[in-house]
Every structure is written in structure tokens, then in C-alpha cells.
Amino acid sequence: MSERNIVIRSNEQVRKEIYKAVGEESGIDVHVHDGIVRLTGVVDTEESLDFIESTIRELPGVDDVENELTVKIVQ
């Protein structure tokens, strides 16, 4: 029987990893609760929005992403 290493990350640890991955000055707010990440704020492009979400989904401790980001409207 093999042993499995289980690592449980706190909400704060996950949040710090997210900001490390996408940058704290990214213009987004990150809320984490029990592995569910809620993103709010404004980004410059649709590509940025997609990149941020896909990057966060790959991080350890993230079970789901509720993406409420919006793309900045350029006039």
C-alpha cells in the first residue's frame, strides 16, 4: 500500500500564491474560501482575463474559480 502526501493549504496561502502568479498590481481582488477562488476587478483584455483564470486553476489548493472579472472598456 503506497502512502500519499496530502498538503492542505490555508485560504491565505492560496491567495498569496495567486498574487505571486498573477501579480499584486494586476487590478484584481482575490477572495479564497475552502479552495474556491472568487476573482473581481477589471483587466485590460479578454486574453488577460483568460490567462489569469487558467493560471489560477492550475495552482495547488484551488478547486474552483468564480471569475467575475470584467474587461476594461476603451473609448
From TrEMBL:
Pfam families according to UniProt: BON (PF04972)
Domain of life: Bacteria
Lineage: Bacteria, Pseudomonadati, Bdellovibrionota, Bacteriovoracia, Bacteriovoracales
InterPro entries recorded: BON_dom
Protein name: BON domain-containing protein
Domain annotation BON: ranges: 4-73
Gene3D superfamilies tied to this protein: 3.30.1340.30
